[in-house]
Amino acid sequence: MEAKQIKTAVEKAGSYIDNLTIKSGVNIPEKVLAAQDLFFTWDNEKRSPLSNKGFLYDYSYYNGVVMEGLYDIYEAEPDRGAVYYDYVKKYLDGLMKQEDGTFTLDFERAGYVDCHGADCYKTAALFERFSGGGDAYGQIASQLYRHLTDESYVNSDGHTPCLDNMPAELGHNYWHSWRKAPRYKIWLDGIYMLQPFLAHHAARIGDVRQLELIQERLDWVAETLLAPNGMYYHAGNGREDVCSFFWTRAIGWYGMAMVDVMEVLPDEYLEKRKAALKLFVDGMLKYQDESGIWANLADQPVTETNRLETSGTAMMSYVILKGVRKGWLDASYQEAGLKAFVGLAEKKLDESGLRDIYLKASANGSNNYEETEYYFTDEGKGSGPFIMAYSEMLRCGGNR
Question: How many whole angstroms separate alpha carbon 177 and alpha carbon 185?
Fold first, then answer.
């Protein structure tokens, strides 16, 4: 791919990201967090008439991935990225409160629900990344880590997640939803919501047992949800009981979980994870469109209902580019990651924003992945991974 084409795509993406966040007149963290009737414009699940969520208010996984993407830019270019660091800091600071000298997550303001399930823990990874240990961010990360791992902790529903929602027969993976037993207990989405946070915190405090469990969880997914076509089922309870749709975003969540966890796993686990990552990418590349973009249902023909989709493609770009940068994938894979990002910038990003982000799909065994009214513009689950992929473009030399 030509350097000029890459440079143009990166510049276009950079302008989009700035206008969505640091230059936005409405997406101002301190203002959004101070009022329950305000929300970030990428939070389509709150503004959409298709959804009526009573939880995950400001502390949500779609806000988390946008903010974590901005933090990735800061890490890629600390000097130029300081403005993104400040933006994310205002977001995190607005979710905290102090009581008796201890910082905690403000449950009411954040909308955090300790008995909902995996989705409530994505933003915890950002507190962990911000933390130097015993500071305010670290105190909150420790609090949320305890909610997930402490056998003496009882949540507001009277359950202990690591005892009641983490069965050994499912590789000690957590159920995706905790309030009631879902048809499929393990979703690829939930692997990403939980495991990077758990891995990074466990590595920082030296929790060897938790790192062993994380390896076991990833092994279970790799062995149980891998289909004969090389892709991964959206969800499942075992090899014979799966939600047999190959939804690109769900697969992308799992890929991001792998590369984010691999950063901190002990060396003795890495060879197995590298092999799994290569198998994962090889399986997906067979279905990459000539545009560089994957369809919403990756194995199905592109149609008006099964469009070339933005969020899953952004995730694949991030996974591939980060895998190459870290040396977990051969450099020959980089072209596919570049092609995915440039394809999105050229075909899905215009004056209206970042288009064709699929809002949501349930792992209920039915095809609810092709509802045209669910294709949104500037939705956080697509904008966030796109920002993450942008940060990897910066790291591999695509500076604007």
Answer: 7
Look up residue 228 and give its two tokens: 């004969």
pTM of the model: 0.96
Beta bridge partner(s), residue 295? 308
Strand partners, 104: 97
Count Cα neighbours of 364 within 13 Å in the Cβ-side half-sphere.
7
* pLDDT tens-digit series, residues 194-208: 999 999 999 999 999
Sign for the pseudo-dihedral over CA of 297, 301, 305, 307: positive
Return the pLDDT at 384: 98
Structure tokens at 346: 């050229």
What is the predicted pLDDT for the residue at 180? 86
